[in-house]
Amino acid sequence: MAAPKRGRSASAPSKPGRSLALILIAIAALTGGMFASGHTTPRLGIDLAGGTSITLTAVNEPGQPNAINKTNMDTAVEIMNRRVNGLGVSEAEVQTQGDRNIIVNIPRGTNSKEAREQVGTTAKLYFRPVLQREASGPGASASPSPGSSAGGSASPSPSSSASKSKATSGSPSPSSSATSQGRPVTDALKATATPSASGSASAAASTKPSASATASASTGSASGDAAKLQAQYAALDCSKPEQRATAGKGAKKGEPTVACGKDGKVWNKFLLGPVAVDGTEIKKAQAVYDTQGAAGWQVQMTFNSSGAKKFADITGQLSQKTTPQNEFAIVLDDEVVSHPYVQTAITGGNAEISGSFTQQDAQSLSNMLSYGALPLSFKESSVTTVTAALGGEQLHAGLIAGAIGLALVVIYLVVYYRGLAAIAVASLVVSAILTYVIMALLGPTIGFALNLPAVCGAIVAIGITADSFIVYFERVRDEIREGRSLRPAVERGWPRARRTILVSDFVSFLAAAVLFIVTVGKVQGFAFTLGLTTLLDVVVVFLFTKPLLTILARRQFFASGHSWSGLDPKRLGAKPPLRRTRRPSAPVDPKEA
Q1: Which residue from 308, 320, 232, 230 is spatially nearest to 276, judged by alpha carbons?
Q2: 214 near 322, Cβ under 8 Å?
């Protein structure tokens, strides 16, 4: 009794309508999401859309002749890559060339300009206490007046909010504005956790070099270095590009220096103390929106253990001072990108910078804090722009190659499989629609960009998808050759075809996964596309090809074995099933009986 049950289950009719409805609903939903997102075409890589290629060369710093090595170069590549990706630039490539060059390829797009600016900012990130600050240029105030006392409110005062900048004297400056190249300049700094009294006491009691530097600079010490630095600060005019280019260059971490920073359209000059915290000691920085209060967008910072102690010490000192000496400058590439003031000693390693931030301001500053510290200094050796015309030609050639490959596959299917070719072509169309829609959606979601190797992967996938159809069709034909009618042949041929298709696609997907893991750059685009289309091949064969053939097997054109159906038993060489016949028994000899 067991054997007949297996035979009936193998040839039992399936319910193909459900599978077809499921895949059609999925296509409709994905297509609707694509149009709703506004991204109706896949994002293109630099080799197809054009972009910018930057060559950065590492330079030796004084006293560090062996700093340029493979470890530091690899670290710089990783940080630059995260810095660019933090801006949402798709398919940006950062890789080494030789022993001291780094190539950065930035695709053409809305964020490419900002990415180039931040990638070019390759110097180290430092936190320095502000000793003096004033507007620089014609009509600027000669010196700051006494500011507000430390430990103010948790957010800027109303006057500060109105001008989006706290002036040196503690009152709003009419010429000051909100941003420094898109970054907030003077913002309140506070702890995310309540600072302990012991932490404040220890910070206040601490005697760091910055405190002595402050005293030396503010009182006009007779020291030759201090006098020279004070004279340099007095002569500095940050409104002049040639002076900005040399301000603070070559300054050592343990010495005070001068720097420039821009508040909106107004340049400020700074006299800064020695480095209090190194940018490498920032563990994490992120832009967040304060939903509980009125602070709006903020930048939250987390320091490692050594950075947390240094930050607690310096904020403890600064909180006891008045403006501008209660500020610390965030210095990147010898330029002050932000100079928040401190309200209280910040312990625990967590802090937040709040003020009149926009979302773009907060994200830009958090990117600099997260990815700004490089182990080496670099200079921009060359900048090359790749035109979109060349990329368009390559894309056009790739599409022609894909069209030729698809046409050859269709011609083969029509000649060899005749009516079954309609099922194969319909399955290819469904696979192409799913591939296109998913690639368009992956652009804004994970930053996927279609490059030339990815196009090659899609072309190779045409053959993989067609191979799955051929496997199934041949299994059905084998069943017909054994003398079965079409409908049982469709159901009985599916289990064997299914196993073969799954094994074949698993091997293809495994190869694509390994290739994606062990390679870098554009080759990953080929591997990603190959893996994606392999997964879609399984979906299409299971939810579209097999159900569609099941439905068409009930139609007279295919069921009757029409000569153009591709399932004609005569053309396939089918033979009627052999039936056992009883051989006539030999006559019995009466004598033997």
Answers
A1: 308
A2: no
pTM > 0.85: no
Q: Which of 474, 505, 502 is nearest to 490 (CA)?
A: 474
List the beta bridge partners of residue 128. 329
d(CA 569, CA 563): 9
Q: What does the pLDDT look like over 428-442, one tens digit per residue?
A: 999 999 999 999 998
Report the greatest alpha carbon distance in the chain.
148
Contact 451, 51 (CB under 8 A): no
Q: What is the pLDDT of residues 232-249, one digit of tens each?
A: 899 999 988 888 878 887
Given its phi and psi angles, is residue 197 left (phi above 0), alpha (psi -120 to 50 degrees) or beta?
alpha
What is the rounded CA–CA span in Å between residue 553 and residue 575? 20
175, 266 in Cβ contact below 8 A? yes
Query: 119 to each of 52, 353, 373, 449, how far by Cα in Å?
Result: 12, 23, 11, 20
Spatial distance between the Cα atoms of 497 and 394, rounded to a whole number of angstroms: 38
With b meaning 16 or more CB within 10 Å and e meaning fewer, what string describes 10-33? Answer: ebeeeebeebbeebeeeeeebbee
Mean of all residue pLDDT scores within the chain = 75
3-state secondary structure 227-288: HHHHHHHHHCCCCCHHHHHHCCCCCCCCCCEEEEEEECCEEEEEEECCCCEEHHHEEEEEEE
Query: Measured on CA atoms in the order 153, 155, 160, 162, is the torsion positive or negative?
Result: negative
> Hey, which residues does 53 pair with through a beta bridge?
105, 384
Residues 214 and 229: beta-carbon distance below 8 Å: no
> Is the N-terminal amide bond of 324 cis, ω within 30° of 0?
yes
Q: Per-residue pLDDT for 116 more than 70?
A: no
**531-541 burial string, b = 16+ CB within 10 Å, else e?**
bbbbebbbebb
